[in-house]
Amino acid sequence: MKLKIFLGLLLSCCITLFALAQTKPTTVPSPPQNPADDDVVKITTNPSARRFSPNDNLFFACMIYNATQLGNPMMRAELFHDGKKLYSVPEVRVQTANQTDLNRVFVSGSLRLNADLEPGSCYLEILIADKNAREKTAPLMQWVEFEVVK
What's the predicted TM-score (pTM) here? Predict the structure, then answer.
């Protein structure tokens, strides 16, 4: 994670990644009484088990810390597959009007994984930049890795 220091305060970002698939059920069935049954539902909270399928809707959420240092924050998301940039989500303004605490600004977005996306290692990179910055500065960047499986 790249960090910038403004006026002695740390500007940083963390990302949570999750997906909803259009082709899969939206509710999780209850596990059967007999755990030996083949249709036992396994739920994991392990972040290293991020596996998504082509055509899934990928949702991401970020928390920008000390965002008061940004005059006009903009967010851009870029998707990489096996180290190559596939596409970018258009840059959007970070909405700060309804935020209760500008020291912790919540930002979210989504993108749909292409239907023809090949299995492999992917990562989503989130870039936060200040469009009102007087000096040219590198954007705040954070990324999260996941795997595409068929």
Answer: 0.69
